[in-house]
Amino acid sequence: MKIICIGQNYFRHALEMNSTVPANPMFFLKPDSAYLRNNHPFFLPDFSNEIHHEIEIVVKISRLGKCIEPQFAHRYYDEIGLGIDFTARDLQRECIANGWPWEMSKAFDQSACVGEFMDKSKLGDLHNIDFSLTLNGKTVQQGNTADMAFYIDDLIAYISKFMTLKIGDLIFTGTPQGIGPVHINDQLEGFIGNQKMLECRIK
Ligand code: MG
Questions:
Q1: In terms of DSSP H, where are the helices of the chain?
Q2: 40 alpha carbon to ligand 1 midpoint, in Å?
Q3: CATH no. for residue 68?
Q4: pLDDT tens, 93-141?
Q5: How many domains does the chain have?
Q6: How far apart are CA 194 and CA 161, in angstroms?
Q7: Residue 86 C-alpha to ligand 1 middle, in angstroms?
Q8: 89 is in which domain, residue-wise?
Q9: Separation CA 84–CA 115 (nearest Å)
Q10: pTM listed for this prediction
Q11: Residue 27 Cα, ligand 1 centroid: separation in angstroms?
Q12: In what order do the strands lie in the sheet with 187-192?
């Protein structure tokens, strides 16, 4: 199983990163060792002083595919959920400044917290999914898939030009604005609409 993460897929998040949305989707990978189960604690690593939360809609691939046309992409996933792309922002800045790959800052153990999934048919219009993240009960990130620069089907089409998508692969589709640091004992909860899909305590 591989975890594919889209960078800068929401205009206002790109803005808060002093960046812009790219002309084509931009993506990077996390290994399967990055997977963190729902309701399991995230342990702050000793190599970073600035771990950030990034709440994201996650798509679970249900069918093997390569070079998938956008109009057929919907056949390659049945379930949608939420995840947190934990990011060592201090290391990411160092990687960017030096032109290094992002793995140290993005692909470490437990950096992909994955919540529950729901059948996509329950969500109705996939271009209008409200989702949010609360930190200690206060909403810190709020997004809607309508604001994506590249929609789910276009992401699948684009990624599958480069790499074969396999059953169980996860696509983190990018975070909306409101990213910020997490601290010990913080409680994170992710919602699609009003439904809680994800829970994680920082240790
Ligand atoms: Mg992200």
A1: 11-16, 89-98, 103-106, 152-162
A2: 20
A3: 3.90.850.10
A4: 999 999 999 999 999 999 999 999 999 999 999 999 999 999 999 999 9
A5: 1
A6: 35
A7: 8
A8: 3-201
A9: 8
A10: 0.97
A11: 9
A12: 138-144, 130-135, 187-192, 195-201
